[in-house]
Write a structure and sequence with these properties.
Layout lengths: L4 E7 L6 H8 L5 E8 L6 H7 L3 E4 L6 H11 L4 E4 L8 H10 L5 E6 L10 H15 L11 E4 H4 L12 H11 L4 E6 L13 H19 L2 H25 L6 H33 L1
Parallel strand pairs: 1-2, 1-4, 2-3, 5-7
Antiparallel strand pairs: 4-6, 5-6
Helix pairs in contact: 5-8, 7-8, 9-10
Length: 288
């Protein structure tokens, strides 16, 4: 098979746009094939994609965006895979730039510039999630959930079991590879307005799921990042309570103070145990 990367496009009921997207993409230099994963569409998405030269894998039922990416990544035969959306938001020139950077990094992410189209109803929620992710990972993440990105296939396959079936695949892969110290690069891109049907993402419902996911991932890859602040808050709260109680009431140790202090110590010890388990998991992945 010629070429070192595959273009992977998950699609669900995108018959109105998939043909135009595939025509625009064509077969760029060094691209081995274009793979479309039809996620149980009840329209002509699969047929149109096949007629436009793409290799098509079909889910019998709708399983979700993340499940489609997992199916595609498991099926690719190249060293790298470049993922993009089927709704016409991504430009060919941006895809090619990411593909050119792919051999030098484990993941290359398209960082949406300010001039990109934005859904202003969802923008505040995305900002909150981004801030939350930055705090939990202790690093600046320029774009948490961009759909245009490349992966080194041998790397991302190690973590496919962690990837959720829904739209959180992008967020999970970002946190996972950054937390494990892989080489990641962000490339500025411009995103156009999506073509056809509206997005199925619901910012409040899916936003809460993503926030819980971020906590779970941080606990998995860097447990003390979650447990230590909670532990310190409880211990400091106990000490502050003692000072204020002694100042305004009497110098005494109350059951609440003791409970806060002991809980803080227990949370820290639990975090230390989780840190050791996380380290063992990392070593196992490195051995693989």
């Amino acid at each position: 098979m010629d070429g070192n990367y595959t273009i992977l496009i998950p699609a669900y009921n995108e018959s109105h746009s998939i043909g135009r997207v595939l025509d625009e993409i064509g077969m760029p230099s060094s691209c081995a094939e274009v793979l479309v994963v039809d996620d149980g569409s009840d329209d002509a998405t699969a047929e149109i994609a096949s007629n436009h030269g793409a290799r098509v894998i079909r889910h019998r039922r709708n399983r979700g965006y993340g499940a489609s990416l997992r199916t595609g990544i498991e099926a690719v035969k190249t060293e790298y895979v470049v993922c993009c959306d089927a709704d016409g938001q991504h430009r060919l020139e941006d895809l090619i730039r990411i593909a050119e950077e792919a051999p030098d990094y484990d993941m290359v992410v398209g960082m949406r510039e300010r001039s990109s189209h934005r859904d202003w109803m969802r923008w505040p929620g995305k900002v909150i999630l981004a801030i939350f992710a930055n705090i939990l990972t202790s690093q600046k993440i320029p774009d948490l959930n961009s759909g245009l990105r490349s992966f080194r296939v041998s790397v991302i396959r190690k973590y496919l079991h962690l990837m959720p079936p829904g739209f959180s695949f992008s967020t999970t892969s970002t946190i996972a590879l950054l937390s494990m110290g892989y080489f990641v690069k962000y490339v500025p891109i411009v995103v156009k307005k999506r073509d056809g049907r509206k997005s199925t993402v619901r910012i409040f419902r899916d936003g809460m799921r993503v926030m819980l996911l971020l906590v779970n991932l941080t606990t998995l890859f860097n447990p003390l990042r979650v447990f230590l602040p909670v532990s310190l808050s409880l211990i400091v709260g106990s000490a502050l309570y003692f000072v204020l109680y002694s100042w305004f009431v009497d110098v005494d140790v109350t059951p609440v103070m003791v409970m806060l202090f002991i809980t803080g110590v227990l949370v820290f010890l639990l975090g230390a145990v989780c840190e050791q388990v996380s380290a063992i998991r990392r070593e196992l992945h490195e051995e693989r």
